């Protein structure tokens, strides 16, 4: 019986956290978000907060420089996924710039990581 109560309390806490996260991001983007679904952002410009997330994730990558161009969308999961339109350039003389879409995950503890990079 105690295990069931603990499980119910944990589920209620998780729903509360997802509700808070959804509300915070929705208020920032002025669009309602569906948990698990991608929401296109209304404000495409890279805010200082978004730049920090982008830089933290991409600074770990070696051999290519990335520059955020715009925030395309967000997805509420156990944390938040961010989809950025970015320019990439391999670090060697005369390398051409490429346009890529980078998906970055920020967990509930604030840790960030690159999920994928797709050429556009």
Can you describe what's shown?
- By secondary structure, the chain is an alpha+beta fold.
- It has one domain (2-119): Nuclear Transport Factor 2, Chain: A, CATH 3.10.450.
- Helix content is 32%, strand content 39%.
- It is elongated.
- The mean pLDDT is 84.
| Largest beta-sheet details | 5 strands, antiparallel
- Low-pLDDT runs of 5+ residues are none
What coarse outline follows from CA principal-axis ratios? Answer: elongated
Give me the secondary-structure category.
alpha+beta
The total count of strands amounts to 5
Structural Rg: 17 Å
Write down the secondary-structure element order. HEHEEEE
Proportion of residues in extended strands: 35-45%
Assign the CATH class.
Alpha Beta
Count of separate structural domains: 1
The average pLDDT value, as a whole number, equals 84
Into which percent range does the helicity of residues fall? 25-40%
Could you give the distance between the termini? 53 Å
Give me the CATH architecture, please: Roll
Properties at a glance:
alpha+beta, Nuclear Transport Factor 2, Chain: A, 39% strand, five-stranded antiparallel sheet, 120 residues, 2 helices
Q: What is shown here, in short?
A:
Strands 1-2-3-4-5 form a five-stranded antiparallel β-sheet. It has one domain (2-119): Nuclear Transport Factor 2, Chain: A (Roll), CATH 3.10.450.
Strands, helices and their partners?
Blueprint lengths: L1 H28 L8 E3 L7 H11 L5 E14 L1 E12 L6 E10 L5 E8 L1
Antiparallel strand pairs: 1-2, 2-3, 3-4, 4-5
């Amino acid at each position: 019986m105690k295990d069931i109560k603990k499980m119910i309390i944990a589920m209620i806490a998780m729903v509360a956290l997802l509700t808070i996260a959804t509300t915070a991001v929705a208020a920032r983007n002025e669009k309602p978000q569906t948990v698990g679904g991608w929401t296109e952002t209304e404000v495409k410009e890279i805010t200082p907060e978004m730049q920090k997330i982008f830089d933290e994730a991409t600074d770990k990558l070696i051999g290519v420089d990335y520059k955020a161009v715009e925030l395309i969308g967000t997805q509420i999961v156990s944390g938040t996924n961010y989809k950025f339109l970015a320019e990439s350039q391999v670090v060697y003389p005369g390398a051409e710039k490429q346009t890529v879409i980078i998906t970055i995950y920020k967990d509930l503890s604030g840790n960030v990581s690159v999920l994928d990079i797709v050429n556009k």
